[in-house]
Design goal:
Blueprint (H helix, E strand, L loop, with lengths): L5 E2 L3 H16 L18 E6 L5 E9 L4 E9 L8 H15 L4 E7 L3 H6 L3 E9 L3 E9 L1
Parallel strand pairs: 4-5
Antiparallel strand pairs: 1-2, 2-3, 3-4, 5-7, 6-7
Length: 145
Amino acid sequence: MSFVAKESKTKKELEVIIALRYKILRKPWDKPLESASDQLEESSINAYIADEKGNAIACGRLQENENLVGQIRYMAVDDTYQGKGLGKLLLKFLEGKGKELGLEKIELHARENALRFYEASGYKHKELSYKLWDIIQHYLMEKRL
């Protein structure tokens, strides 16, 4: 199967994206569904890759912050599809959207288990970031577009 990243355009598409975020990024720590979303959904670019049944199997979001800086958040790939290049495909898609918006750089807060993935995609480690729920250490990373 050939995978394609695309931008979410409907409420239903956003719902399947949030369901995947929850499954991968929140549920393992018994966090509520509401923690997989925020008030910036409407103003952000939500991208995803679906399987042949239309289920989101990978997702990520680009939000535009101040000073021509974008931020990638909520990157998740379903466990079944890990290691198949879907994260890289999504990242390239979101970076392309950032270039279209005229952004100069993208920042993100990576979990420790994702550091090598982002480094391989050209992101540089800037500093230690926050610790989500006092459990999951994050690291601020950036890439110039």
